[in-house]
Request: fold
Amino acid sequence: MYVCVLFEILLVCSTEYRSLFLFQSILHSFLNLRRRRSSKMLGVIIRNNKTILLRPSFSSAFRQFSSSAKQMTVRDALNSALDEEMSADPKVFLMGEEVGEYQGAYKISKGLLEKYGPDRVLDTPITEAGFTGIGVGAAYYGLKPVVEFMTFNFSMQAIDHIINSAAKSNYMSAGQISVPIVFRGPNGAAAGVGAQHSHCYASWYGSCPGLKVLAPYSSEDARGLLKAAIRDPDPVVFLENELLYGESFPVSAEVLDSSFCLPIGKAKIEREGKDVTITAFSKMVGFALKAAEILAKEGISAEVINLRSIRPLDRSTINASVRKTNRLVTVEEGFPQHGVGAEICTSVIEESFGYLDAPVERIAGADVPMPYAANLERLAVPQVEDIVRAAKRACHRSVPMAAAA
Amino acid sequence: MSFTATKFSHSLLAVPVNSSSPRSNDKPLSFSSDLFKHNPSSSFLGSTQKLLRFNAINKPFLHRRSSSPSAVLLQQTSNLLITKEEGLVLYEDMVLGRSFEDKCAEMYYRGKMFGFVHLYNGQEAVSTGFIKYLRQEDCIVSTYRDHVHALSKGVPSRAVMSELFGKATGCCRGQGGSMHMFSKEHNVLGGFAFIGEGIPVATGAAFSMKYKREVLNQADSDNVTLAFFGDGTCNNGQFFECLNMAALWKLPIVFVVENNLWAIGMSHIRATSDPQIWKKGPAFGMPGVHVDGMDVLKVREVAKEAIDRARRGEGPTLVECETYRFRGHSLADPDELRNPAEKEHYAGRDPITALKKYLFENKLATEQELKTIDKKIDEILEDAVEFAEKSPQPPRSQLLENVFADPKGFGIGPDGRYRCEDPKFTEGTAHV
Reply:
């Protein structure tokens, strides 16, 4: 429910094409507003939310947080990762629209211009094809560019360079020309920004050999994966989520260490369970965790896998989990056809067919361009209750028919 | 380093094109060296003014082409433009380019190579004129018509031929093909199959050089990048985007337009509102130069000025080389749209014939010397074909190699080594 409230608050402000940089500050203030209001109106849920994040089972899956774990926003996690990698390697530079003097359309590059100067934090004209290609060429010739797209929707203007110039060069040149570059920016649905600003490109880029595609959820993911992406010798598409930028997550001392770096191609089990596996990435991980909380109250133990890496896809973690739970629900915001969920379904059917006790449930965005109207938009992206319903269906619990269109 | 825009005064920018001084046939663009010899402290604008004076034309496009370039060249050249040694190098490179492409056609029709094969015949003066003036560390970025650029840059005929045969000994082990020649050793940063795709990549390489010099303090990094592309590309947005950024950031790059008048079957004058491409340089605050692309010596003079200028850190230059391809767009093109009279006209302006004539008339080479070179090239190509024929096909195991620089695609660990080399990183399979 609070998700709904959040969206409705956000949708009060309509945004125009390319005015996202205005939107972000509004969004930021609304997120704060939401947090303030929530603490009064929806305190229980927010407390529950924090309870989820601090649950021992959640944290023990990878590292034990100290009791005094620091909180960090995803925005700060990305900013600090960029800062540290730029500091460590002078070949790393950031380029894109509004990354410099404006401090980033979403303030991800805040302070970097001041620290590294205009030579390494490069404001470009609004020319995605041009500056993305320049980034790729710079990577061909020994530098390590980080190209920011104001949103990944604009990467369509430059997709030729991502696919044809970056992803294929190492192969076409038989390993002579590697392309150490990161393409990053917010991906997928934001709120109220309409069809051309709400597309999730995970499955598009995930289908292309030669690219690595990462989708962080938490601050730990954002820090560890961005640092891994910048250090990587290959082109990495780094799909952030605008609505997560202002979210705070607990981070351990190890995560804050400048040497911290997560492996590419490894998923993370965010919550262990035994009855049903739920795979998700980016913002949907949070929804899946909320769904798992609700399911737990009804006696269903859900295992939530945060994919982290869309390509390479951690098939072994997914299959191992399904072999344990015998049921699978995949969740993504993107379109259903040829989606990430479709690929996961295939992997499980190929490798673990005999272990399945129920048909795989695939939850995806509605198969339509994103509508603008708040009520329609809410129907077009997966909600927590959709995940709960699908998990129950997979566990053979009778559930009322979906109210979906 | 400063990537801020060059500051210029509006009065300078407002210099109108002097359209009343058309370039006549008997005084074609001599790229006389005073073109760039202006106060070194001033920006490109001084030269732009001169360029405008030199280049402004308002004649119908097809009349721009001088009819007898070699004769003109002789008239205007009192001092020889090249030494004997230079002349022979240029001749050898042009003959290599021409003969290599003829050999490609032969091999294509014999089924030895496949797919799209775009030949460079007729345009050799551009590749030779520019690339032979480069150093090994300088970069070139080419198009799908890239064999000869790679050869001029020094990639061995064997490696290029073998690549075309799809053999493991090719310069890209058979993974690139005709349209994708790469050589890290020779700084050939690729042939690109899409119109306009190579221009930003070249601009990025130039950006790297400036970055290395000014941010990484590698003072010796004064390498230059050449971007080759055709007239059709000049209607594509990436061309304009990169002219802007290259001029804005004063990058060491030369944009070389090989205007061969035809984009497959689309005539340049039917596709472009103002067919004088060089004019787009001054519009972005860089010199725009027009040169007879069928005359290697003129091309070389222009190349010297533009490359030296880039190397001195004075920014990019746009060079339009008027040239012509003697064959169809690709070997699959029936080439039915070009007027036979037009083809005939340009066949009479063969750049190799013109250079030969210049060498003889200036007593820089004897018939015998050139014949020796022709024979040497024939032998090189026979050897290249034989080498390619005998080379093995890429093994099956090669199929999945080189998708990533990182061997398995799992990234780099905190210790700086590939994760896949870590024995503890055993679980999970990366499907690349």
Remarks:
- The two ends of chain A are 19 Å apart (CA to CA).
- Chain A has two domains: 71-256, 269-405.
- Chain A is about 45% helix and 15% strand.
- Residues 20-41 of chain A form the longest helix (22 residues).
